[in-house]
Design brief:
The chain contains 15 helices and 18 strands. By secondary structure, it is an alpha/beta fold. The protein has 2 domains: 233 residues, Putative sugar-binding, N-terminal domain (Rossmann fold), CATH 3.40.50.10840; 166 residues, Four-carbon acid sugar kinase, nucleotide binding domain (Molybdenum Cofactor Biosythetic Enzyme, Chain A). It binds adenosine-5'-diphosphate (ADP).
């Protein structure tokens, strides 16, 4: 067994992919597990990320899952851990971020951790404890109307305090700007005062470098994905990670490809239009038609395709058309119908020889990976920030899989994905 240096626990699937992708920028091998593995660890990577689906789960369930994930990662050899949540701190007063952190701290006997969801490359910054999305405070951003986790306060200290039992403090940008030594002394001062939970300001990648440098020996760090990004280089410098640590390997995967899109975000609409304009064969799934005909017509179409032409099957439409389908079929039923169909297309395409599978949509990705019975992904080349290619095994076949949530990627994403793989 190869020792794992950092064990990460993410509260959702695409968040886990995002974190795994940023860690993999270092070139070191990163594995992503979908859920807590059934088997004890045997062959593990220097960086292991376990994807949970606990963002909106009841607190007790989220805590139990995170502790089970921690136990698995400790068995894999990890002595440092990272609790990853959304860069918009998606949670409620009864939310899971604080309770999970406290439970992990208790298991690790840690008396302090940091909270840093900043992701400057994606416009998430923290100043004086207030989280900004672009130029807007979190509570004035579209996140204020999120259906599950509406964020009505931008202040992370105020958001976190009701979620935890121990005191919450802030280390602001003035200290972070003074460098890692100053930040570490401020953390120590807070520790001697008994302040266990420290929100740390960050507005630029340089701040994240300082924070990671100051906190790299903490048993537990928490945050968005970006504050973990400097850790591989720091571990290499510290000799924790050997220069010859396991590297990502590129694999030869056949050219047969299927592209599946179940996301209706603005960016995915642009990406589908852009890909169709390249002349790639495509099939549009209409939930109302599908509800009458079943999966037969699309599976027949798929059977007649030359998979080396990377055909696209999409349900992606504008918000008005989504609403119209939801009014007729119900929100959940319309979504499940599309997810089930795209999952069936993935299995059919794999059985027909597709070895490169590109999926757009967070929930859609979950449905496809489940249908393909994939439990582990090795992270490979990055297509766009937060979206890497991954390698996995499905029904005994080696597959290259790209999973993209909502608004990630540029309009040329699908073609970019194919070019990225061809160049690795
Ligand atoms: P994103 O990452 O953009 O949020 P998801 O896959 O997570 O994408 O969510 C999109 C949801 O919308 C899925 O449940 C999908 O099945 C559903 N959906 C996709 N196309 C349609 C459509 N034409 N009408 C109604 N629902 C749709």
């Amino acid at each position: 067994m190869t020792g794992t240096i950092l064990g990460c626990i993410a509260d959702d699937f695409t968040g886990a992919t995002d974190l795994a992708g940023l860690l993999a920028r270092s070139g070191v091998k990163v594995s992503l597990r979908i859920g807590i593995p059934d088997q004890p660890p045997t062959q593990t990577s220097p960086f292991e990320v376990i994807a949970l689906k606990s963002r909106t789960a009841p607190v007790a369930d989220a805590v139990a899952e995170a502790r089970a994930a921690l136990a698995w990662l400790r068995k894999a050899g990890a002595q440092r851990f990272f609790w990853k949540y959304c860069s918009t701190f998606d949670s409620t007063a009864e939310g899971n971020i604080g309770p999970v952190a406290e439970a992990l701290m208790a298991d690790l006997d840690a008396d302090q951790t940091i909270y840093c969801p900043a992701f400057p490359e994606n416009g998430r910054s923290i100043f004086m404890g207030n989280l900004f999305v672009g130029q807007q405070p979190l509570s004035e951003s579209p996140m204020k109307d999120h259906p599950l986790t509406p964020m009505r306060d931008s202040n992370l200290v105020r958001l976190l305090a009701p979620q935890v039992t121990k005191p919450v403090g802030l280390i602001d940008r003035m200290t972070v700007a003074m460098g890692a030594v100053a930040l570490r002394s401020s953390l120590d001062a807070h520790r001697s005062d008994g302040t266990a939970h420290i929100v740390v300001d960050a507005v630029a990648n340089a701040d994240l470098e300082t924070i990671a440098a100051a906190c790299r020996d903490m048993p537990l760090m928490t945050g968005g994905s970006a504050v973990a990004m400097p850790l591989p280089a720091l571990y290499l410098a510290d000799g924790l990670l050997a220069a010859n640590a396991q590297k990502q390997v590129s694999r030869i995967i056949g050219p047969e490809t299927i592209v599946l899109s179940g996301s209706c975000s603005e960016m995915t609409n642009a990406q589908v239009a852009n890909y169709r304009a390249t002349g790639a064969p495509s099939y549009q799934l209409d939930p109302l038609v599908l509800n009458k005909t079943g999966e037969g017509p699309v599976l027949d179409w798929l059977a007649g395709q030359d998979l080396t032409k990377a055909p696209l099957i999409y349900a992606t439409v504008d918000p008005a058309s989504v609403k119209a389908a939801q009014m007729k079929l119900g929100v959940a039923a319309a979504g499940e119908l599309i997810e089930r169909t795209l999952a069936a297309c993935a299995v059919t395409a794999r059985n027909a020889g597709a070895r490169r599978i590109i999926v757009a949509g967070g929930e859609t990705s979950g449905a496809v990976t489940k249908a393909l019975e994939i439990s582990q992904l090795d992270i490979a080349a990055e297509i766009a920030p937060g979206v890497p290619w991954t390698y996995c095994t499905s029904a005994g076949h080696e597959i290259a899989l790209a999973l993209k949530s909502g608004n990630f990627g540029k309009p040329s994403f699908f073609a970019d994905a194919l070019t990225t793989l061809a160049n690795t």
